[in-house]
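Q: I'm teaching a short session on how sequence maps to structure, and I want students to see two examples side by side rather than one. Could you give me a first protein with its sequence written out and its structure tokens following it? Keep the formatting plain so it prints cleanly on a handout.
A: Of course. Example one:
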Amino acid sequence: MKEPLPIAMILAAGRGVRMRELCQNKPKPLIEVNGRSLLEHILDKARKYHFKKIVINTCYKGEMIKEKLKSSSDPIFFSDETTALETGGGVKHALPLLLPLGKNGFFILNGDSFWEEPHNKLLDQMGDFWDPDHMDVLLAVVPLKQAKGSSKEGDFFIENGRLRRKSPTEKNVPYVYIGVQIVHPRVFDNISDSSFSMRQIFDTAQKNKKLFHLVFDGNWYHIGDPEALFETEQLFNKKG
């Protein structure tokens, strides 16, 4: 096993609009699944990887996230946004906190990503596979059948061993991006916008043949709306 990448960023600034009333009084990362918040589930997995620093961006009801984590012993730092900068803009805004520890790459974890690890630890697998000399972006994906908790559509094809993001009109897309990635900081060098999506980074990396993937063997739960949250809870209740 390689030496772990020392730093990760958790994206937690969004409003969770599709969660409707569930996010009126709390940010989406604090919604609970199986008795614990999504953010706590992510931090559980982060602890096993032994990051030296974890950066969390905040905007919508960010003080609630800070209050939740005020007694945590994890090496947490906050990147506050006065207005939400989207996923890519949020990471770019946090670069002063991510560097220099992340000069060879850093993890980015969606604050609402929820996955199971029946066999392999996803972060360990990705860290071992990461090659900063040849990769700009490494995405974790699962086959559509392993995307639980909703009727989520796929995001990517794998063609000739490489990822290709679907076009808006394509259907029957077999792989789902699960909100876990490693990126090299050079991907932000030529971006002047302050607010933009990480999809822009993915598309550039794909064009430059610097977009790579790892197919994870566990299940991922897409908790995109209240119905999907209910379905996820039902699945866990059956397991219990």
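Q: Perfect. Now a second example for contrast.
A: Example two:
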Amino acid sequence: MRILLVEDERRLADALEYILKKNHFIVDAAYDGINGQDMAETGIYDLIILDRMLPGKEGVEILKYLRSKKITSAVIILTAKDAVPCRIEGLDAGADDYLIKPFSTEELMARIRALGRRSHHKVPSDLFQIGDFTFDPKSCEGRYKDKHVRFTLKETQLLELLLRNAGQVLTKEQILERVWGFDSEVEMNAIEIYIYYVRKKLNALNSSLSISTIRGIGYCLKEAEHVLENTNNINTL
């Protein structure tokens, strides 16, 4: 799951970013409303944790704008305003949940899990099934018939992205943003290295899956023998 955190209190933002990354989420952070809206508008985030009182642009106004642009990312609003009319305003603007400051990080994590269970923005615990190949992002394990292999966390994030967009070409830029982060300083050749690692492990399973290189553009995962027709849990970007 990719999360955008929009919070101007830097100490709180840094603490939340650390906790979310520790729980294996991919996190980008913005510290004002203008940058937060620009990043959210890319549509690449599964969840946006949005502070209400922000410099540059207020959180509810950002949310209204995103919903008007058909951005469907799940949104949790963070706010010190606990009055009922304020909560109603945020929910009516399109928020999926509302969390009053101060809050415990355990409660935030529970709300993220709850959102994942009830929305189409699933937390990365669903099984992916393509033919005889099964992949579990939670355990970082892939199985093909009677063989299995473990993937590293970064390999898991890359393979999950490819599976969610099976049959579609993903550019290197899209992969870099979704797996390494919006402001990542990782070089493009890191993608080639991890594609090699994932290919090697899929080959070790004798899986029917293959990752094709689309020269000058990016990569596409597909089933080698036939078009993907019976793919479960596949979502587009």
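Q: What should students look for in example two?
A: Point them to this: The chain has two domains: 2-118, 128-223. Also worth mentioning: The radius of gyration is 19 Å.
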